[in-house]
């Protein structure tokens, strides 16, 4: 059978002399484990493990509101693993961006400027790229309304501009 792995019959026999005895942390019973479980085996059975966990006061404990607040405070700002030195996500969701998009849509009467579709999955497109022209980011003359399909065909959509520049540098053609 393809894709199946069968263990040879005598494979585990080489481990029979390597078994070790360990004392159960809950009941004190001695039990035998294979070498690969020496570091992880603590209890002789699931029943003993569950009993030991139920006796532990830390098990199933809920955080108090004060503890939750301290945990939250310990992960704010520069203490957070996602901290990037105070760089904000200016492009996505700020007030100016939303106002600019609505102004572009209203100016173009909610109509794609390439194919003429009206009100169909509209996008506000920056004619000159957002990242390369920071002074033109919220200039109404640098925007146009496009439908989703037409927007994906523009040279400034997503990674298209980056790949076009890369081709030009690598192969010396535009």
Structural overview:
This protein is an alpha+beta fold and 174 residues long. It contains five helices and four strands. The strands form two sheets. The chain has a two-stranded antiparallel ribbon with strand order 1-2. Strands 3-4 form a two-stranded antiparallel sheet. The model has no long low-confidence stretch (mean pLDDT 82).
Concise summary:
The chain is of the alpha+beta class and 174 residues long. Helices cover 29% and strands 10% of the residues. Strand 1 and strand 2 form a beta hairpin.
Outline the secondary-structure elements.
Blueprint: E1 20-23, E2 30-33, H1 46-55, H2 65-73, H3 95-107, E3 122-126, E4 143-147, H4 148-153, H5 160-171
Antiparallel strand pairs: 1-2, 3-4
- The count of helical stretches stands at 5
Level of helix content?
25-40%
Distance between the termini: 54 Å
| SSE succession | EEHHHEEHH
- How big is the Rg? 32 Å
- Strand runs, count: 4
Q: Order of strands in the sheet with the most strands?
A: 1-2
Sheet with the most strands?
2 strands, antiparallel
Percent range for β-strand residues: 5-15%
Spans of at least 5 consecutive residues with low confidence:
none
Helix and strand content put the structural class at alpha+beta
**Global outline:** elongated
Mean pLDDT: 82
Descriptive keywords:
elongated; two-stranded antiparallel sheet; alpha+beta; 174 residues
């Amino acid at each position: 059978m393809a894709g199946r792995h069968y263990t040879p019959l005598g494979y585990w026999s080489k481990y029979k002399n390597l078994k070790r005895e360990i004392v159960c942390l809950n009941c004190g019973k001695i039990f035998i484990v294979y070498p690969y479980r020496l570091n992880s085996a603590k209890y002789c059975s699931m029943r003993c493990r569950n009993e030991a966990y139920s006796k532990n006061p830390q098990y199933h404990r809920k955080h108090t509101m004060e503890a939750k607040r301290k945990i939250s405070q310990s992960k704010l700002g520069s203490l957070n693993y996602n901290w990037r030195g105070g760089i904000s996500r200016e492009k996505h969701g700020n007030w100016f961006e939303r106002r600019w998009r609505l102004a572009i849509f209203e100016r173009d009467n909610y109509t794609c400027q390439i194919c003429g579709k009206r009100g169909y999955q509209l996008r506000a497109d920056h004619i000159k790229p957002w990242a390369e022209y920071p002074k033109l980011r919220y200039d109404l003359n640098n925007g146009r309304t496009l439908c989703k399909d037409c927007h994906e065909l523009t040279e400034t959509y997503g990674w298209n501009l980056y790949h076009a520049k890369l081709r030009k540098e690598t192969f010396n053609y535009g």
